[in-house]
Design goal:
Elements (H helix, E strand, L loop, with lengths): L1 H18 L1 H28 L19 H6 L1 H12 L2 E6 L2 E6 L1 H9 L6 E2 H13 L9 H13 L3 H19 L8 E4 H18 L1 H6 L3 H11 L3 H5 L6 H26 L8 H5 L12 H32 L1 H15 L8 H4 L3 H13 L6 E5 L3 E2 L6 E2 L4 E4 L2 H4 L27 E3 L4 E3 L20 H18 E5 L7 E2 L6 E2 L4 E6 L2
Parallel strand pairs: 2-8
Antiparallel strand pairs: 1-2, 3-5, 4-14, 5-8, 6-7, 9-10, 11-14, 12-13
Helix pairs in contact: 8-9, 8-20, 9-15, 11-13, 13-15, 15-18, 15-20
The structure holds protoporphyrin IX containing FE.
């Protein structure tokens, strides 16, 4: 009892002390001096702790946070400004972690083709991906298992599957944009439309008709909850007691159960004639005889859904914005369709679209200028030297590649910042080095010295590229058949770098007029 009385008296005297104006100004000035001392010590610490062989470090004022604010406002400017000061390789601190960015073609090659013994993708991405995708797949398993999972996925992406997908994607696009149809046209929310359409087409084709049927209600909401848990904050903190974390974990369980129920029903009814990805993931076995279970298949399906959604929907949005900016390209695209198909009423097909060079180049140019992924990470697990320098990147740092730096470099692309799909008619993309098979099919030399790498390179290279092209080509071709489009008075939107996948600053509206 006596202790409680003493405590209350102590608190009362502290409150009286704090509310006295003379004491308050004393406390404030002590606080300011304290902060100043911490900032000075941080600066001194940065200078004393310099490892002579470590790459140069970007100085910062706020301990722990480091350069996080400058970086997240505009990472491209942050890289460009510091590249002028420190060269292609430098380290910056963010939220208590050190990132060594490696720019230029050599930087890309260094990160994408780094050895498994030196760096780990799993260590970089796991806190973000495992709670969303689930256990046992992608970055929640040894790398050799991921390579085999990529092989299972590639088997489900055959040309025959793509032939079946194109009419389905065309139909989904027509059905979706019927809602925009009126005689005079109007203004549409392009980003929202592309987000909804891409998830509809991916679920109709890859995920299977059962999932597509649920897309308008339950699955769409679950996808949003998973997506809210797939933000930069989740990369730094695997779990926090925030509503978005609870919703993410809940959505993961429900989504897995939905896939599992579809698999169970297919098994119960002996369904084997489906061409979708879900079917091709069933009954797979790893080389060492370990079965790839139905739960693994559910988790990998969630991973594919997440990997392909924002990447493709932002690319479709930017592509149509750039077409609206350059209306002559829309006319050329329609002329190309007529040339290849004979008429704009002929349905699109996988084989016919292979002959539509401009269409292909519109997507390639969009991905050069507006890649959705601008930073690729690996965690250093054994100190590594950057070739041609004395820089040794210490264990524990993350190495980062940012292929957009070469993609918008005048050294490789004339008028690099302008959207010009025709430039690709005179560029031959060389895949350097000998072919390598990491376990999911041959890729040329890791291909990492090509300045244009929106799909990455090396063992972690994207396996969704062909599907993404098929999906984007079909959506864009169908859209320009249905509507003419132009930019609103706001012009081209800026880029929002605060998201996991860089997207246009919202809202993104577009003017459209139905074609006769
Ligand atoms: C990997 C970009 C669409 C599935 C990657 C990587 C990039 C990328 C840059 C390399 C990541 C790294 O090295 O850390 C893109 C872009 C897309 C797209 C720009 C569309 C425009 C898709 C689609 C799917 C997909 C549609 C699946 C249906 C994957 C998978 C990986 C990957 C499974 C492998 C991850 C690994 O091995 O670590 N993607 N992607 N992507 N992507 Fe894509």
């Amino acid at each position: 009892m006596a202790i409680i009385v003493q405590l209350v008296q102590g608190l009362q005297s502290l409150a009286a002390h704090l509310t006295n104006p003379a004491n308050l100004s004393q406390i404030l000035s002590t606080l300011v001096i304290g902060i100043a001392i911490i900032l000075i010590l941080t600066q001194i610490g940065q200078r004393i702790n310099v490892d002579k062989n470590a790459p140069p470090e970007v100085p910062y004022w706020i301990p722990y946070l480091g350069s996080a604010i400058a970086f997240s406002v505009n990472p491209l400017k942050f890289y460009a400004d510091n590249r002028k000061k420190y060269g292609d390789v430098f380290t910056y601190t963010m939220v208590g972690r050190k990132f060594t960015v490696c720019l230029g073609v050599e930087g890309n090659n260094f990160v994408f083709n780094a050895k498994l013994a030196d760096v780990s993708a799993e260590e970089s991405y796991k806190p973000l991906t495992t709670p969303v995708f689930g256990k046992g797949v992608v970055y929640d398993c040894p790398n050799h298992m991921l390579m085999e999972q990529k092989k299972f996925v590639k088997w489900g992406m055959s040309n025959d599957a793509f032939r079946a997908y194109v009419p389905e994607i065309e139909e989904e696009t027509r059905n979706y944009f019927q809602r925009w149809n009126n005689k005079t046209g109007g203004r549409g929310d392009l980003f929202k439309a592309m987000g909804e359409l891409i998830i509809n087409t991916a679920s109709r084709t890859l995920m299977g008709p059962e999932i597509r049927a649920l897309m308008d209600d339950s699955v769409a909401q679950l996808y949003h909850d998973l997506d809210d848990g797939f933000q930069p904050i989740n990369m730094f903190f695997e779990w926090l007691p925030l509503p978005s974390y609870f919703r993410r974990d809940n959505a993961h369980i429900k989504m897995r159960n939905i896939f599992k129920q579809v698999i169970d029903e297919r098994r119960a009814n002996n369904v084997t004639d489906k061409t979708d990805m879900l079917q091709s993931l069933l009954n797979q076995t790893y080389k060492d005889g370990t079965p790839f279970t139905d739960v693994d298949a559910c988790h990998l399906m969630i991973a594919l859904l997440m990997a392909g959604q924002h990447t493709s929907s932002t690319t479709a949005t930017w592509a149509l914005l750039h077409l609206a900016e350059h209306p002559h390209l829309i006319k050329e695209l329609l002329a190309e369709q007529k040339d290849v198909l004979g008429s704009l009423d002929t349905p699109l097909s996988f084989d016919a679209m292979k002959n539509m060079t401009l269409l292909e180049n519109v997507i390639r140019e969009t991905l050069r200028l507006r890649p959705p992924i601008i930073m690729i990470l690996r965690k250093v697990i054994r100190p590594i030297t950057f070739p041609g320098t004395d820089y040794v990147i210490p264990k524990g740092n993350y190495i980062a590649a940012s292929p957009i730096a070469t993609q918008v470099d005048e050294q490789f692309y004339k008028n690099a910042m302008s959207f010009d799909p025709h430039r690709w008619e005179s560029i031959k993309e060389e895949e350097s080095g000998e072919s390598v098979d990491y376990g999911f099919g041959k890729i040329a030399g890791g291909g990492a010295r090509n300045p244009n790498l929106p799909f990455g390179a090396g063992r972690h290279r994207c396996i969704g590229e062909t599907f993404a092209y098929v999906q984007l080509k079909t959506v864009i071709s169908t859209f320009v058949r249905m509507y003419d489009l132009s930019l609103t008075e706001k012009g081209m939107p800026g880029q929002d770098f605060t998201k996991m996948f860089v997207q246009p600053v919202l809202p993104v509206e577009i003017n459209y007029t139905p074609r006769k």
